[in-house]
Design a protein that fits this description.
Blueprint lengths: L4 E4 L2 E5 L10 E4 L2 H9 L6 H18 L3 H9 L6 H11 L6 H33 L5 E5 L14 H10 L3 E7 L6 H13 L3 E4 L4 H6 L5 E4 L3 E3 L4 E4 L2 H11 L3 E4 L5 E2 L16 H4 E2 L2 E2 L12 E4 L6 E4 L2 E3 L2
Parallel strand pairs: 4-5, 4-7, 5-6, 7-10, 8-11, 10-15
Antiparallel strand pairs: 1-2, 2-3, 8-9, 9-14, 12-13, 15-16
Helix pairs in contact: 2-3, 2-4, 2-5, 3-4, 4-5, 5-6
């Protein structure tokens, strides 16, 4: 499994997630401006991957000289909700007094740690799912993309599927298309196809109906920020999924590395939710699909209260509300 983000020949190399599933290609980012642009247009996305991007961005700035702290601040604020981005920037920046090589070494260590932590977190979560779901093989529901594309490698919520699939315990995965940018149908479905895991893509609005028909044994979700009280910010639509899961008695499991936990945020109401460009809703494939001048509400994330979550699982263990 090739890394989603890496360092090579003095530059940051990422899988261009905007091009998938039509084309698998990589981008070589040689300046902080190129990195910030890639982050903002979602060529690189997913909380753990953003943490790596933040650290590697500081390494890039440190090697090129100039005002490294100003560049680091620009990277940290490229997207506001995912705490991992600022966390990765901060961790790498702490090594700046030791020189550019030390900053790069720290960033590269974070790449290795990310895969290890996500493998451990998803292995822990797989046992939670098996304990909560007596039926075998399992029918799982996934929202957005929390696979290896959202991390350095392996994945968080979708990492659970890799563990269970290897044991022959997955019947199929229902993949929410995840509007408006279709990270589910474009990215998660692509990952499942590559791994040979049976799946079906569904419109986001079909999730509750699927649960009502008994087609879902467990919902798996990642996280972009977890508040101290266990509230979880994740891709828009996650909150509605959690409400439906609670109503139908379906376990709802969140999987994330501990770097996603932000203890400085007391509750989800304090999380800064990013709002995206209106064009993501008013246009599709370059063609207008809403009346000219239509007002738009386009939050990239929502907050799921801890009371609706069966378990939050990290590499350190299982946390229940």
């Amino acid at each position: 499994m090739r890394r989603t983000i890496d360092w090579a020949d003095g530059a940051i190399v990422i899988v261009d997630q905007v091009a998938l599933p039509g084309e698998y290609r990589t981008l070589t980012l040689r300046t902080v401006t190129e990195l910030v642009d890639a982050i903002q247009r979602l060529a690189v996305r997913g909380a753990p991957a953003l943490g790596a991007a933040g650290a590697l961005g500081v390494a890039l700035a440190a090697r090129q000289g100039g005002d490294v702290r100003a560049e680091a601040d620009r990277i940290a604020h490229a997207r506001p909700t995912a705490v991992n981005l600022a966390w990765g920037v901060s961790r790498a920046l702490d090594r700046l007094p030791d020189g550019a090589d030390a900053v790069l070494a720290e960033a590269q260590a974070m790449l290795d740690e990310d895969e290890q932590r996500n493998r451990a977190a998803s292995a822990n979560a797989a046992e939670v799912v098996l304990g909560a779901c007596p039926r075998r093989p399992l029918r799982l529901l996934s929202h957005c993309n929390a696979g290896h594309l959202a991390t350095v490698a392996w994945g968080t919520a979708l990492g659970v599927v890799w563990h269970l699939h290897a044991r022959g315990l997955v019947e199929s995965v229902l993949v929410d298309e995840t509007r408006p940018l279709l990270q589910g149908s474009r990215l998660t479905a692509w990952e499942l196809e590559q791994a040979g895991v049976p799946y079906r893509v569904q419109p986001d609005g079909a999730a509750a109906a699927a649960m009502a028909r008994g087609l879902v044994d467990c919902v798996l979700a990642g996280a972009d920020r977890i508040a101290a009280n266990g509230d979880v910010a994740n891709k828009i639509g996650t909150y509605g999924l959690a409400i439906s899961a609670a109503h139908h008695g379906v376990p709802f499991v969140v999987v994330a590395p501990t770097s996603t936990v932000d203890k400085s945020i007391a509750a989800g109401t304090d999380i800064d939710i990013e709002e995206r460009a209106p064009s993501e809703l008013t246009e599709f494939g370059g063609a207008r699909v809403a009346p000219k001048g239509a007002a738009v509400f386009n939050p990239a994330f929502d907050v799921t209260p801890a009371a609706l979550i069966t378990a939050v699982v990290t590499e350190d263990g299982v946390f229940r509300s």
